[in-house]
Amino acid sequence: MNTPQSMFLGWGSLIVAAGASYYWAKKGIDERRSQQAKAGSRPTDKLDWRARIEKQKESPAPVSASVTAVAEAEGGRDASEANVSLGKKNPP
């Protein structure tokens, strides 16, 4: 049967491990975010989901490098035809 001391030791070590993990993960995430902000690859504006959808509609989705490479290798076809050769469906 668990004694009060072993329960305290178990819960205490669990709380300490969780706190250390949270601190370590948060530090890494904050560092990555600051690097992205300095590089300009992270947007600084805070948008709700409606504004994000509108922003996506305004700018077309980028074509991936693999689709572009296949298009160039197969005679310069456009990306929609290259998607078919990669087995991807074309967007509507």
TrEMBL record:
Chain ranges passing through the membrane: 6-25
Record region (Disordered): 54-92
One Pfam family matching this protein: DUF4748
Keywords: Membrane, Transmembrane, Transmembrane helix
Bias (Low complexity) ranges: 59-73
Designated name of the protein: ATP synthase subunit e, mitochondrial
Native source species: Cerrena zonata
